[in-house]
Amino acid sequence: MLTHLHISDFTLVDTLDLELQPGLTTVTGETGAGKSITLDALALALGDRADADKVRPGAKKADIHASFCLKALPFARKQLEEQDLDQGDECILRRVVTSEGRSRAYINGHTVTLQQLRSFGESLIDIHSQHEHQSLLKTSTHRRLLDDFGGNENLVKQVKAAFNQWHTANQTLEQVRNNSEEINARFQLLRYQVEELDQLDLQEGELEALEEEQKTLANSEEIQQGCQQVSALCSDDEQGLSAALHQAIHILSKLPGKSKHLEEAESLFRSASIHVEEAQREIDHHTDSIEDDASRLPEVETRLTAIYDIARKHRIQPEELIALHQSLADELASLRSGDDQLEALEQEAAQAKAEFDTYAAKLSEKRAQAAKKLSTQVNKKLKQLAMENALFDISLPAATTKPNRHGNEEVEFLISTHPGQAPKALSKIASGGELSRISLAIQVVTAQTSTIPTMVFDEVDVGIGGPTGDIVGQLLRELGEKGQVICVTHLAQVASKAHQHLYVSKSVSKKDVKSDVSYLSQEQKIAELARMMGGDTASAQSLAHAKEMLEQAVPAS
What we know:
Structural class: alpha/beta
Largest sheet: 6 strands, antiparallel
Number of helices: 19
Radius of gyration: 48 Å
Strand content: 15-25%
Shape: elongated
Strand order of the largest sheet: 2-1-4-5-6-7
């Protein structure tokens, strides 16, 4: 709900602060006083086009603040939270226009784009006039009003969710379909590479062991000769190391009265004899194994060649083959052939489309029922508003693009204002005054389901008077009982129904022209109603007539 409007240096307004309340607020004043200035300023704060001539002559800039209470508007709070603009239950929209024509927009003190300002403003206020952003001329508004009226909110969400699921599946399907040849080629290559590495079956640590064995086998002849020489040195019966050590041990063991040094020497010789024998056994074992493995060298070299060749093919080091094998196997496991993917995705897309069709068909049925009911009720209101020949209809043509995230059909409000005339789009048939009355009829009918808390009507009573004007006032008050309505009017019958009454006055001096807006007291309301009825405000009869109208319009509390 709009709670406060601050205007400074805007057209004829120097400074103006208005505290606004729920219910119906009417704006009246002499012709040319500037009744529409307040609404023009509000429209500017909501993102209307800005011109340098909107700045009051002599001022550097025009500044408009519109404050709103969002306690009952969780969807608006959520919209601000998503853009990091939320500041609790209060929201301030601000627009600054310089005398050079530059414009800046703000939401809660944060600079925003004009599109952000317009988008958010449209969820707070619906202005019914000839402004460019008039929502009733948008088919998106028609769809929203019809679905709100029909109670289709959950079904609309289900249709959108089903469409999004189908859209995602279809996009993936098209992508795979376009790339199926590449996917098949990649699948075949991976399968060949993994099979080749499976056959190689390289084990952890195997490469290092093979390389070590290959070095040993390649030098086996030289090693064999060396081992034979060392073995001979150890085992020679007359001059070998073992024989010499045994002789030394024998001599030392026979010496009488040996010192500790000689005893230690004997012990070391005995240990040396044991080590020599062990060393000889190790050499003999090695020599025997070399003789047994001599035929393995070609086998080892063939295995190493296979490993090196595959590593070169993949342009990696041989020690990286095991990791590559695992990586390619994982990719192959996750990648089905292009034909398999196409079949699975086609099934997924078909299931999503079937789910969408089910929800969309239900929504179409509900919309058709709601359209019939809404049309009937709006046409009743139009006849009350002196539009006896008007025929309101709701068109539900098939959507140009199927599937559509909004369902199987478009939604458009149509109107015929003359007998025999086929209903056409509102923008092509209705005049400004007629459009305001059509809008009023629609808003009164849909007020119980509308999510927009504030409605503004500019000259809704153009071209009407008498009993019809009284009905317009009654409908506006009825609408105000359920929310907030601001109406610029020239009819006393409408103004008399207001919960609050604003009066616009203009003062002219040698230096400039100024407009001012003030709330009227009960006595001031009576005087203003007398003026609007064309009577003499100083006449007791005119004042009595105005007082009677006010008393009849507003039930005593």
